[in-house]
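Weekly structure sync - notes
Attendees: PM, LS, DV (DV joined late)
Agenda: review two folding runs queued last week.

Item 1: First target. Sequence and structure tokens pasted below for the record.
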Amino acid sequence: MADCGALPVAEQDRLIGMLTDRDIVVRALAKSNRGGATVRDVMSPEVWYCFEDDELEDVARSMAEIHVCRQVVLDRSKRLKGILSLGDLAETDEVDCASNAVRWASALAPAKA
């Protein structure tokens, strides 16, 4: 198992959304009573991203401000490189960044995906 909480959703090499564990619980289960739910039906269409060369402190602050626990990481050509989570930030050797990320996340409203 991958033990991931979000997957990027692409269409014709373009990122169109994120499918999160929360989307599955909240939207997919609600739609399952009617049957036929698709990924597009339940995904979150907002894609919050950062660039692979952004400063971690700035990314952590951004994640807290927009209330997300994960951000897609792109290169400057906007090609997918990975996903960065608050958990990843907490494991970094940059102590200030990790502690700020956790503090900002806990001080703000409940997180989205």
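Item 2: Second target, run right after the first with the same settings.
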Amino acid sequence: MRSILGVLVSALLVVGCAGSTPSAAPAASVPAASASGAGAFGGAVQFKYDGQPSTTTVDAVADGTSLSGTAVTQIGKGHHTVQLGCAAQSGDMWAVAGKTEKSDVEGGRAGDWSAVIVKTGSPAKIGIWVSDPPSTASDCSAWLKGIDFGTLDDGLFDAVESGALTAPAGLVP
């Protein structure tokens, strides 16, 4: 099964070797300094990643001036924990992102940028952008704006089998 996790890690290695960065796509964003709306958001979803039962749990808050919290993805016995700091929406996709706090999943490295990307629909789909070096952007919002959501192939996402994730206020596609 193709998944955004493995494909994006590979794509990032190719992009890094080529010396270029992903092109920016029009996206509504909620940087840490200007989150619109207030309140807790997130939830938990279960999906299969390469046939392995996996779960992503987002526990975060956007209070009108900041966005913070965590996104923890469990794949098999591995865990990938991200300290969230920004969010963006483009078309039928929205994402929360930040710096990886710790990771023991393939390709994950503490200190790198990481994102949970949700594709709305029936069923909803999820993709985990595991790792992008911190040198690719000066801050979370700049990094997330650099992802061209329009080029992310639907086949890179895994169907959500159960649960739900809610977007921060102001980002509902």
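Discussion on item 2: Residues 113 and 163 are 25 Å apart (CA to CA).
Action: LS to circulate a short write-up before next sync.
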